[in-house]
Fold these 2 entries.
Entry 1:
Amino acid sequence: MTTYIDPSRDNWQRFKDLPRDRPIHMLNLIKFRDLAEYPAGHPNHGKGLTGREAYAIYLEGFQRVVANDGAAMVWEAELECTVTGPDGEWDEGFVMGYPNSGVFMAMVKNEEYIRDVVPHRSAAVADSRLIRFRG
């Protein structure tokens, strides 16, 4: 089974090639690890956090990083059941809105985000999809 945690080089280039001056929405579909997998040396390594708990830490840090950039949650809701597709494929889904793709690109290059926030996502996520839509 192929899993996806980070964008491929080709997909990232396609993202960057799209217009950067208009609002975008990013659909996030997340499958959590049962237990978060923090690397040795990380303060949360061996603490027994679930993937969902580690992702909650990620979201808190993510929101702190983008708080002044105009990014905001557009839609989120508790998943109840899958109607089309395999049951249990995703644990969480939500849509983030960004005023433009430049804000998103600045976030993923932000040193605080890379150093302090991304490790929680990496520890939490077993599989994911991130899909860009015109805002």
Note: The longest helix spans residues 51-66.
Entry 2:
Amino acid sequence: MTMDAAVAVIDDDEAVRDSLAMMLSNHGFGVCSFASADAFMAVIGANNLPSCVVCDIRMPGMSGLELQRELAKKWPMVPLVLITGHGDVSMAVNALKAGAYDFVEKPFAPDRLIESIKSAIDQNEHKRNQDQEIVRLSARINELSDRQKQVMDLAVKGLSNKEIALSLKISPRTVETYRAWVMEKTGARNIADLVRIAMRLEENGSSIRPRPRSVGVLEDDQSL
């Protein structure tokens, strides 16, 4: 079985590993089991990522905490749920702060673990969809000319067409044309949509601002 769209179970105790695998299989999850975090890391790859990793925190070789650090460096998109003993809670809390999705204390009710795994997978899928949308929006913005980006930047700041025209020293009619192109290329239905798109891009480190350039030349007769 490949790990794609599966839950990876990592535990050095064979009985625990088999029990978890059976429980998850009974709840409809694909399961891949590993006796150590080292064995798991030896096979994980960009084309073979699990939907979630469930790992005991204390194991010979690479511990659950060390696995969390390795995943954070190499595969941060893979959620990790740690299984902890009572004495490991403070360690698990530190792992949570460092990026682990959740920890479940032993002995745990099956529903508690299933709920955590489902939540981790759902949240990760939601984030992946958001990331893909940001990529699409960034691509659309990159298709805009510098002047179109200037018009969009000023429009989302609340300037009217006349104010944008004065700022860029172009005619209001040209601003209207640029603005129409911006709306079409970004898929925005109105200025509120355009503002939301700009906010999402800024929050994710993308900018709608054009490269610095001198303005002041009328562009009414130039290509849009």
Note: DSSP finds nine helices and five strands in the chain.
